[in-house]
Design brief:
single chain, Jelly Rolls, four-stranded antiparallel beta sheet, 64% strand
Length: 105
Amino acid sequence: MASFYNVARANVNSSPVTVLTSDADSTIVLSILVANNIGSSAVDCTVSMNTGATINNYLGYTIPVPADSNVDFIANKYILPSGKSIRVTSSTSGQLDVAISYVVV
């Protein structure tokens, strides 16, 4: 039986923040939604898949998130292997919120 989850992190910093770490090889990320909670300007966002602090690959690199808007970083599903994590970085601290929806089968 599949189990569905959501995890959120408010006010992403300019240093990498781990939002989700997989503990199963069957973790399927359905959505990585990043919202700009400040209405004054766009903010760049980087989303990466990591092993500890080591970046394995980027899911998005300095993607602009418009003011008062959001960007979904996953166009399709993404398999997150066990022990890997998703980390998010903002070009300006405190202006981005991130929500991840995933399923473990």
